[in-house]
Amino acid sequence: MKRKVIKFFELLIFVAILLVLVQTFLEDFAICASWQVNIRRILIVTGFAFDLFFTIEFLVRLYWAMVGRKVKYYLFNERGWIDFLASIPLLMFNSGPALLSLLASGTIIISLSGIFNILKVLKAIRIARILRFLRIIKIFKNIKYAESPMAQRHIARIISLCVTTFVIILFLFITISSIITLPGMQTAFATAHNKTIEYISTGNQSDIQIKARINKITSLDASLLQIKKTDETVIFSRHKLEYWQNNYMAEDYTTIHNKDKSLIFVFDQKPKNQEQSIQNLIYFFMIVFIVLVFLFIYSPHFALTITDPIHVMKSGMEDKNYNLEVKILKYYREDDIFKLAHLYNEKYLPLKDRTIAQGESDFTEIKIEDIDFGLEQSPENQE
């Protein structure tokens, strides 16, 4: 009964990993494809649910590891550090703030824009969602893509190192670039926004003059969505409320005050968010590509040059009727494994055949000194 529960739990984790990867892809794709707000809200809620689920999973596994005094074994041998990085940090810095923003925004009422400015600090660390990609590694704990446990462990470790290194470098690069303002799309948007604000705010501040400048600038700056006074009186709005509710979330726009704080400007952030989502999708497919390369290119190479020769030699030593020689690959004959295979072909198999031909009952009792490796004896050994 206990074994069935464990198997069900592991299957549930495996399915959850597959689903969270799909959810991660769709969350970025939804931004790129400009899906409606309702769908994006569902993706945010499911993202939070997955991160909460994996956080509980990590805490449960850590608890049982502590009970069994196997914390070190769980964190390193069973890759518990991946469970940690892909759960608690994401819940705290990604899906948690995203859900908070969603709950605070309600139906995306523009008058609440001041609240969303506070949440921008939390949005800046959404790059933590990249850590979800580490879940790809955990999939291969449940997929038997190699018959040899050694091969599976070896390939899994290499994949872990490569993907983790890639994700950490990417994480550090994005973090540093977000702290240090680099020339790019974000800087270009900020410059354009400041010019728009300066143009409208400069000169006569009568409603007629402001509206005249607004009518001129709105055709030039498509990112300007709304202008209102500090008392929430709307001077200009590019879209109706229903359109806002169906197409804009809190992260899709930003609010900026002019210098004397008399006007509030709302600018479209969708192009910048789409650029970031496209980058996230590129990172996603790069990691998937790395994993597939190891599975379908390096894994067969490892089997051909390591596990297959070992399997043949092991079978030959265990089964007296198994006399298959190890195929020595031309380009790898200087490798240690194939040097050993050469001795197996040239020394061990002939000795095994002679032992069996002489009627020996158990050929497995062949000793290492029975095998002539063709080495010249030193004067000391000759004596």
In sequence order, what are the helices and strands, one letter per element?
HHHHHHHHHHEEHEEHHH
As a whole number of angstroms, the C-alpha radius of gyration is: 32 Å
As laid out across the biggest beta sheet, the strand order is: 2-1-4-3
Q: Helix content range of the residues, please?
A: 55-70%
First-residue to last-residue Cα separation? 66 Å
Beta strands, count: 4
- The overall pLDDT, averaged over residues, is 80
Q: How many individual helices?
A: 14
The assigned structural class equals mainly alpha
Key features of this structure:
mainly alpha, 3 domains, 14 helices, 4 strands, 5% strand, disordered C terminus
